[in-house]
């Protein structure tokens, strides 16, 4: 009995130390990347490993970090308009959007409710897929980002690690690939087009946009205007 109790104690202690170590590592990473450019994300790594495992040796997860001042103000405005219009006001979670999604699913519709903060946490630290474990980790990481980074940093990192197509990560790489220009030169309509493919950048394409993507592009452009244009970013100190 004493031996079993000793084993259980050591097991619990090691588990506690492991969990504590993981949490401490994540906190340190969040603090470091609050000022240091993010070189890659978990999604980039997952995509690259999956390609290698499947034998696709031509795949390359490409990204190029740029600061917010090197991105056209139309781009952050476009992703807010298209993905998360309450981004400056919420604390990482949009509970009204969650309820709306639950209602839509009862009607047989499929919608997402992740905020830009949640998407940044997921893309940077977690894996693809749907599970309660991943959602729980995402929630904890989201709180960490909101607490230690702030809105402008979250938006900057999001724009640098978001997936815009096969192997294309970040707005600078997307801008160079699709428009042959730097992200700082993106027009309003180009930014709206890039934002339009974000819900599924593997299915939707900026270089050959479908009727649906074009329609979403125009909707996002109208929303950008209704939000107040780039003055919206200045109002909330996001640019």
UniProtKB/TrEMBL annotation:
Pathway: Cell wall biogenesis; peptidoglycan biosynthesis
Transmembrane regions listed in the UniProt entry: 15-40
Record's catalysed reaction(s): [GlcNAc-(1->4)-Mur2Ac(oyl-L-Ala-gamma-D-Glu-L-Lys-D-Ala-D-Ala)](n)-di-trans,octa-cis-undecaprenyl diphosphate + beta-D-GlcNAc-(1->4)-Mur2Ac(oyl-L-Ala-gamma-D-Glu-L-Lys-D-Ala-D-Ala)-di-trans,octa-cis-undecaprenyl diphosphate = [GlcNAc-(1->4)-Mur2Ac(oyl-L-Ala-gamma-D-Glu-L-Lys-D-Ala-D-Ala)](n+1)-di-trans,octa-cis-undecaprenyl diphosphate + di-trans,octa-cis-undecaprenyl diphosphate + H(+)
Pfam family, one: Transgly
Limits of the Glycosyl transferase family domain: 59-224
Subcellular location(s) per record: Cell inner membrane
Enzyme Commission number(s) from the entry: 2.4.99.28
Family in the record: Belongs to the glycosyltransferase 51 family.
Protein known as: Biosynthetic peptidoglycan transglycosylase
Organism whose genome encodes this protein: Tatumella terrea
